[in-house]
Design goal:
By secondary structure, the chain is α+β, with helices and mostly antiparallel strands. The protein has two domains: 121 residues, no CATH class; 140 residues, Protein Transport Mog1p, Chain A (3-Layer(aba) Sandwich), CATH 3.40.1000.10. It is built from twelve helices and ten strands. Strands 3-4-5-9-8-7-6 form a seven-stranded antiparallel β-sheet. It has a three-stranded antiparallel β-sheet with strand order 1-2-10. Strand 7 and strand 8 form a beta hairpin. The protein is rod-shaped and about 105 Å long.
């Protein structure tokens, strides 16, 4: 006997189920809520989360999430969750339908219709929200970890130590924050942190003509970077407060989707031109401008030709 013939609450069941009612009507024929039955449901098997939320069975979703977390302890055990939902999904939905309709029929007809429409039917927005959440959680986790790392790095800039490196030709000293490490390179001095780099080269003044100026070293270095990274001049208001006779230049560019400042300066120290190139993200430059300035000003060489 068909469900609509034996059940006087058919209008309520049809209203509760909504989309795909004929499928559930067929699967629920001759079934009672007091006895567990098995009817295979491919949607519940393949997409248990989405199916439960789509059918507004939010309480069951919490149990499935907990089961997934526990299944992480045993490899491939999550398959049992899918099989369970495939076998018993229709029963769980039938039980949910029966419970809500029983509650609705304690109300007036108008109130019952409103209640059933609210508790039943399907939710298109919920699976969409779940999908967005699944995509955003890793991104938010990565972004959060990145921000935490940046904050930790920024908080260390007030602590200074002297980083000294002796190259084959020169002895260059710089007072730098502890987050920087000396790296081996072809430069006279190369310091690196997780998002910033400091490059220092010393050139004997006697090897250059009398018309060579500090600005020449800045222009030469900047030209090389302009060709590689397509640098553009940055706002001059972000320049450091250096001595009047020490030229400087600031550029910005996007590297692999990230914005960076490229800072160039040069000064005389003893018998050398000291060329400095510093790169860092704009936010770090602005937050740590004072610390960067101290680091740049501290650069010197002890050697003489």
């Amino acid at each position: 006997m068909a469900l609509e013939q034996k059940n006087p609450k058919d209008w309520a069941i049809k209203e509760f189920v909504g989309n795909n009612y004929p499928y559930y009507k067929t699967n629920w024929e001759n079934q009672g809520s007091e006895k567990v039955f098995i009817r295979w449901n491919w949607a519940a098997f393949l997409f248990p989360f989405y199916w439960l939320i789509y059918r507004k069975m939010f309480s069951y979703t919490l149990f499935i999430i907990l089961a997934y977390l526990l299944s992480a302890l045993i490899p491939y055990s999550f398959i049992l969750i899918h099989i369970f939902m495939g076998c018993l999904g229709n029963y769980l939905y039938f039980k949910k339908c029966h419970q809500e309709i029983t509650a609705a029929f304690k109300l007036t007809r108008q109130e019952a219709e409103t209640y059933i429409r609210k508790k039943g039917h399907t939710s298109i927005s919920a699976p969409m929200i779940l999908t967005v959440s699944v995509l955003l959680v890793p991104l938010m986790t990565f972004s959060g970890a990145k921000v935490i790392k940046e904050v930790e790095a920024i908080s260390k800039l007030s602590s200074y130590n002297t980083c000294e490196m002796v190259s084959e030709k020169h002895n260059i000293t710089v007072s730098a924050p502890q987050i920087y490490e000396i790296k081996k390179s072809n430069y006279d001095l190369y310091l690196s942190s997780y998002n910033s780099e400091l490059i220092v080269n010393a050139y004997p003044i006697k090897e250059f003509s009398a018309v060579t100026w500090e600005q020449n070293f800045i222009d030469s270095a900047a030209a090389n970077y302009i060709d590689i990274y397509k640098l553009k001049p940055a706002d001059k208001e972000n320049l450091l407060s250096l001595p009047i006779n020490q030229p400087q230049a600031l550029y910005y560019a996007s590297v692999a989707g990230n914005d960076f400042y490229f800072y160039f300066t040069c000064k005389k120290s003893g018998q050398y031109y000291i060329q400095t190139i510093y790169t860092t993200p704009p936010y770090s430059w602005k937050l740590n401008k004072e610390a960067i300035q101290k680091m740049i000003l501290s650069i010197s060489t002890k050697d003489s030709p």
